[in-house]
Write a structure and sequence with these properties.
180 residues, alpha+beta, 18% strand, globular
């Protein structure tokens, strides 16, 4: 169940004309059902954006909304076309870390993370938002730019990578801009 504060914030994003690139299924470890998550896309989050704090970032906005750049959304579509993710075969972050090359290698993965793994990390954050309610924004938002790491203040980022699961794109929800 999505906390009311997150439901209101998600409704506000839609009201403000946010463009949903596609919808995905996500959950955190221990959650039994899949939650539909809107993946909003805008040009400010593209790799070539002039907005330094937005450029090339994926970020969880609410318990059911993630923001990405159109270029990342396109990469997700291409990756999913080659190897689709499903609720039966969900994606988790290899080794439980996006940026720890040694840990990823020891777990049998590539040193770089896939788009699906990045979405799995964001799904971990949506699970935190469902669990924490309105406290998610000050608790996680205040440390999210610090990324993963070994210190106590990296705990919430590490947890998102360890426990998030991406269950694939919900069929029929891909924005026409991504279908060309």
């Amino acid at each position: 169940m999505i906390p009311m504060s997150h439901a209101a914030a998600s409704a506000f994003l839609h009201l403000m004309g946010g463009v949903v690139a596609f919808r995905i299924r996500g959950r955190g470890e221990g959650e039994t059902g899949w939650t539909p998550i809107d993946v909003f896309a805008n040009d400010r989050r593209n790799a070539a954006s002039r907005w330094p704090l937005w450029r090339n970032h994926c970020i969880t906005l609410t318990a059911s909304a993630v923001a990405v750049g159109w270029d990342f959304a396109r990469d997700v579509i291409e990756e999913e076309a080659q190897e689709p993710t499903t609720p039966v075969r969900p994606v988790r972050v290899t080794g439980g870390r996006l940026g720890d090359i040694d840990r990823r290698y020891r777990s049998g993965g590539q040193p770089w993370c896939s788009c699906a793994e990045i979405l799995a990390h964001e799904c971990g954050h949506t699970a935190q938002a469902r669990r924490m309610g309105f406290l998610y924004w000050p608790l996680v938002g205040s440390v999210t730019l610090l990324r993963e790491g070994p210190r106590w203040f990296h705990r919430l980022e590490n947890e998102a990578s360890e426990f998030g699961e991406f269950g694939g794109i919900i069929p029929g929800t891909i924005h026409p801009r991504l279908l060309s």
